[in-house]
């Protein structure tokens, strides 16, 4: 019979036997009562240390997160309650990096009230080397062709204003000069 030959070639009968064997294996792992179907499928039938699985007498595996007893938790809470709390005050301060005397406010611990502004040490202005007319004519004028003294002074001002951040300088640079970042760095 031709249909049997096709089935034999496609091995349909063998597949049917294999799939029925799989169904039998699945049926052997039955979900215990009291355990949700989703939980059982997520854990692949591996028993956990949860109360439902433990009460059914199934094996338990150790929990992933360590457990503590309630006495140690209470001891930690008592320690936290007995500790003195630092007092905070709303204070005005002046940033030493600013010259305009602008006042800002923030919360600060009362015991540190007399300390200087902590971020003032980070904010430093870069001091660029200055040059005279003679130094410009001797050293800088012949160094790069196409640069005027005015443009060089403009670049120096931009470098000081933006702390030598050449990407920002290039972004803010006057577009009539048409300079690349590399040209600005070289100058």
Automatic annotation (TrEMBL):
Composition-biased stretches, type Basic and acidic residues, lie in 1-36
InterPro entries under this entry?
DAMP1_SANT-like, Swc4/Dmap1
Which UniProt keywords are listed? Chromatin regulator, Nucleus, Transcription, Transcription regulation
Q: Where is the DAMP1 SANT/Myb-like domain?
A: 117-187
What's any one GO cellular component for it? Swr1 complex
GO BP annotations of the record are:
chromatin remodeling; DNA repair; negative regulation of transcription by RNA polymerase II
MF terms from GO for this chain are: transcription corepressor activity
Q: Which Gene3D superfamilies match?
A: Homeodomain-like
**Which Pfam family, giving just one, matches this sequence?**
SANT_DAMP1_like
Keyword Ligase tagged: no
Q: What is its subcellular localisation? A: Nucleus
- Annotated region Disordered: the residues are 1-46
Protein name per Swiss-Prot or TrEMBL = dAMP1 SANT/Myb-like domain-containing protein
Species source reads Euplotes harpa
Upper lineage is: Eukaryota, Sar, Alveolata, Ciliophora, Intramacronucleata
